[in-house]
Specification:
By secondary structure, the chain is mostly helical. Helix content is 80%, strand content 0%. The radius of gyration is 12 Å and the shape is globular. The N terminus is likely disordered.
Length: 74
């Protein structure tokens, strides 16, 4: 059970990690981010909210978005 949970957490982390750079490129345009990722608007919003809940950085705020982007690049 624990192994499956870790696998699911890693999968979600990869999904969020893929979303952030695209969201940065398409800054302030949820529609363009959705088109680029082939995801529904609600899915993108849900994932951005999950990132905020888990790390305390809001990807919709410029300063936090830069921090998250740099953290992914390191």
């Amino acid at each position: 059970m624990q192994t499956r949970r870790c696998t699911l957490q890693k999968k979600r982390a990869r999904q969020h990690g893929k979303l952030l750079p695209i969201d940065q490129e398409e800054r302030k345009s949820l529609k363009k981010t959705c088109e680029e990722t082939f995801l529904h608007k609600n899915t993108v919003q849900y994932r951005l909210n999950q990132i905020y809940k888990k790390c305390g950085c809001n990807p919709r705020e410029f300063r936090d978005a830069v921090r998250l982007y740099l953290a992914l690049k390191m």
